[in-house]
Design goal:
mainly beta; 61 residues; globular
Length: 61
């Protein structure tokens, strides 16, 4: 999946991958897909395109 945003969103393996733009919103079901292929879940986890699951990292201010 290629991001068409400018500036380009972080890749799925980037530490800030969860800050990419939402491409498909299913918040009614508790998840959304980002333009980099990451699926965010309302419970604080994300599923990477390679199949691994991690906790959404906290972004420091």
């Amino acid at each position: 999946m290629l991001c068409t945003h400018s500036p380009q969103c972080p890749e799925a393996d980037d530490p800030h991958c969860c800050s990419a733009h939402v491409a498909y919103d299913r918040s009614d079901q508790g998840w959304c897909r980002l333009c980099n292929g990451v699926i965010l879940f309302d419970d604080g986890l994300y599923l990477a395109p390679d199949g691994h699951v991690e906790t959404v990292p906290l972004l420091s201010a």
